[in-house]
Structure formats: structure tokens, C-alpha cells
Amino acid sequence: MEMHTNKSDTNARSTRKKVAYVAVLALVIILISVIVASLVHRKILGDSSVEDPPWHRARLPKSLVPQHYRLELKPDLEASVFTGAVEITLYCLEPTRYIVLHANLLNITADSVFLKTFRGGSLTLEDWFLYPKNEFLVLKSKTSLETGQRYVIGIKFQGQLLEDMRGFYRSYYTANSTRRYLAVSQFAPMDARKAFPCFDEPAMKATFDVTLVHQSEHSSLSNMQIRQSEVRSGGWVADHYYTTVRMSTYLLAFVISDFSFKEGVTGVHDIVAVPQMGVPAMENWGLVVSHENRLLYAPQLSPVWKKEAVASMIAHELAHMWFGNLVTPVWWDGVWLKEGLATWAAVRGVDAAEPTWMVKERYFVQSLHQILLVDSSNLSHPLQLTVTGQDDVGRGASLMRMLNTVLDGTFTKGIVKYLQKYKYANAAQDDLWECLTEAAQEDGRTDVQVKDVMDTWTLQMGFPVVTVIRNYSNGSVTVSQRHFLYDPEANVQESLRNNVWQVPLAFMSRDSGNVSRDNGAMSSRDVLWLKKREEDFRSSIDASSWLLANTNQTGYYRVNYDVTNWRLMAEDLNSDNFQNIPSQSRAGLIDDAFNLVRSGDLAPAVALNLSRYLKREREYLPWLAAERVFGYLHMMLADTNSSSDLK
Ligand SMILES: [Zn+2]
Fold it and tell me: Domain ERAP1-like C-terminal, which positions (predicted)?
């Protein structure tokens, strides 16, 4: 009992002791967590004493711009992590104590962050913290940085080499049943900040000295050539690259792998195929990275279309070296411009190299008809808002084609001006319009104010259908326009219904007659502008001859005609003279006619009568157009009583 009592006494004492320990421990834990929380809070949320702090805004402040980066990255492929160090030279445009830059999912090494003057004078860094909401890293200087002075910041960091195909990521392939890893970058549009702290906006251009550290059995690639390889301990090699040109962060590229590379495929550019990639291909400056499916072509095994697809992809990415890389969009709403110009240039490039593929004609017929189709919905959007997919790229390219037709040789001249003026810098669409207008005026083309024209095509949603009504007794032609929609009852804002475009009309007639404002003589190359909702023109065309208003369908719009003109065209098409109408126009007529039926603007009999001529057609483009519209007809009539009539 005593013993028992004693024991229970001992137990009670030890329990009290334990409680005391636990209490002390709990207190310590609470204290530590409060301290840590306050530290973390400080490191994450920043300085709450500042009113309207710059890191609360989504865009980088304009007080500091980067000039040069010295960047070293060392990925560990097996451990799936990387470490790095960056030193950034900054130029101060406005006095500030805050250096705001991007960093996302990076661990910043606490005691590594420094700030100094460009000449090496030390400056006190009062604090630094991450602001994850805007993916910012903020450095707070004790004293204000001064306008016109240069400064250097330095940061060491670690990150994870995830297999997420964004930023600096890990990819793999299997050889001899073992998995081999490679490290690849995909920074566009805004994942460079996931690889290193940087000013990750397209207009924040700078030069870069890149060093990639890898195991000796691997090799590295970046935008530039290797200047020097340095052997380091532990089997590591540091490849130091030549300084880049002035460029945007999203165009940097790094690849570390055990691939062997074919030298000199394109001369100055490397093109590398990787097994996992989030986009089909990326136009990194000097190092195009492509998904392997898109790049690899085996002459004995791949189908013929693959050769053309690979050529087109390479041409597109190389065209970006000028449109996008040399001259970069100011912001991401201008992406359509680089995509449109690169596509337009690439199509012409491939066409020049392999004219027998007919890439130019085919691309424009194929993509124009596809885009006109998707752009006829009330769910479409203005081009300048953002490039959301392949259709917007084609839409941009089609607008460039229209502008090129209108401006003729002046277009190329304007493009050269634009590249010269904005090289190694950034430009928005208005800058291109200005260069094109300048070139047009130098060439005596005073009729075109490119901005006025193009704003109607890029800032408004959709496109117009132009209706041509001829008066066969007095020769006058009334041309009107309205927003083309498949469903005229569609829920569209009233303001959109009033959209007016500046439409370049390129007329052609069966006889030599033409259309003009004042019945004056005009060459067939001339363009007449429809700038109002409706205008009257004069024509010298015989009443027995058809009139075509969008010759070769170079304009991004549809055309409807009066019934007599449709009949005149159908008569000619259904005769041995059907080639009086050029093949691109024949393709355009087929596409327009059936889509006008779909929107309720044209009687089905008119379109079907027109299409009867196809039994004579031996050219590819009109059949390409027919395939699309018949496919739609077939789909709509498949389970109806009319399906046998269609056949
Ligand atoms: Zn592109």
C-alpha cells in the first residue's frame, strides 16, 4: 500500500513534472512560432507602413530598369532541384527606395541579397521580402536610389526542377530501359521568374551573361555560343556564354542534356527537339526549342505533309527572330502583331523555297475560311485583346495579307522601316501603322492612313459582309457593309451592330470596265475604300458582264451581290470560260456563297447553282473551299429528308 502510495506519489510528481515540461515546451513552441510567423510575415507580406506600395500593383514600377544580368544556374537533374545566382545592373529613372522585380516559387538565400552602387560602393539593404500575390521580390534600400545612377543587386536562390513544362523544368526520355533526364526552359510568356529573379516583362530588355553548370557527361545550350568551359570540382563543368544582344526575359533559353547536337543546321541558330513541352515550339532567340513530334522528320518514314509542316514550323520560328525577338510587343495584348507578321512572313518564305507546295495560296484559303467561320459568332472578340489560339494567329496573318495587297510594294518598305526603328526595343501596333503610313506617303500613297484603317479591323469584333447592288440601266453601284453574323438575332451589343470598317474594295469585271467614284479611269490594281455604311460608285461595266468585289479574296470580309450579278457569275462559271474568274476568287465565291446561305443572306439555290461548275474544276483551291462547305451541309442535313437530295 505504502509502496503503492509511494508509487502513486512518485507518479503524481512525475506527472506534474511532465506537465511542467510540456507547458514550457508549448511556451517555447508558441514563442518560436510567433517569432517565425513574424519573420515569415515580414518576408512574405512586406512593409505595411507604406501607403500604396508599388508591389501592390500588378505591373512593375517604372522607377528602375534592368540593363545587364550575370546569371549562373546549376541544375541537379537527379535531385530535381537547381541553385542559382544572379547579379543585375539597374538604371534608376526615378528616385525610389524599393527595388521591385519578379520571383516565383524560388527560395531566396537569406544572407545572399545585396545592393551596391555600380562602382562597388556598398549600400545598406534595410530589408527584402517576397510578395507572392504578384510574384514579386522587393528589396528595400535604406537610402533612396538616385535618378541617372546605376546600381547592382545580387541574389542567390534555389528552385525545384519540376516536370510541369513551365519555367526551368525537367524533361526525360528512356534509353536502354533507363530514364534519362534533361533540364529545359520555357519562359514565354511569364515563367522566367520561376528560374531566376528578374524583371519579367517584355519591355524590360537587357543583355545577359549566362553560365550553365552541369555534370561533365552532359552538355548545355543557350541563346549564344559558349565563350569558355571551366572545369569545376565534383565532376561539374561551367559553360560561360557570350553576352546576348538586348532582349526580353521570355526569349532566354537553357537546355542541359546528354543529347548530341547536329551542328550548323541553320547556320547561326540551334534548333533542339525535346520530349516534353507545353507548346509546340518556342522562338527563343538563337535557340528554338520544339516538341520532338513537331521537328523530327525521317525521309523514309514520315508522310509528305510532315516535311511541309516541319518546314513551316521552322520558318515561323525563324521569322520570329525579327517579329517578336528583334522588335518585341510592348505588352502581351500586342502578341497578335508578332504572330501575324511571323506567320505572314513564314508562309511567303516557305513558298519561295518550295513553290510547288503552293503553301501561300493554300494557307491563306485554308486559314482565311476557317477564321471567317469562327469570327462570325457573337462570341468572337477583338484581335487586340489577346491571342488566344491558332485562329487569332491566322487572323493576324490574314490582315497582314490584306494590308500587303492594299499597299503593294510599300508594305515591305514600311516593315523594314519598322524593324530598323524599333530593333532591340519594343513596339505596339500603332508604331507599325505609323511606319507603314510613312512609307505609303513617301510612295505617293496619300489615300491610306494605316492606323485609321487597321483600328477598325483590330479593335472591333468580327468583320463585315459587303453587299454590292448594281443598277444595270445607269451603271451605278451601291456598296454597303454590316457586321457579319451567322445568327442575325444573336445577342450582340447594339454598339457592335453599328460597327463600320474601312474596307478596301478590289474590283474586277468580266469585261475591261471598272468601278470608280467619278467614273474616271482606274487601273485594276487600284483599291476603292468603303469607309461609310453605304456608298455609291460609278461603273463602266457592261450590263452583261459580272462584277467581283474582293478579287482573290485578299480582303478579310465577305461579299454578297444582287441576284443578277450572282447569275452572271454562275453563267460564266458553268461554261468553258470558268477560268475568267481566277482560282482564288472561285474558292472565295464558293466559301462566301454557302456561308451567306448559312446566315440567311442568300437563297440556297443560288449557291448550289454556282457550285455546279465544280464538275469542270481541276484546281485544288476551289475544291478545298468546297470540301469545307459541303462538310457543313452534310453535317446539317445528315439525318433529314434532304440528305438524299444532297447526294
Ligand atoms: Zn509564333
Answer: 546-642
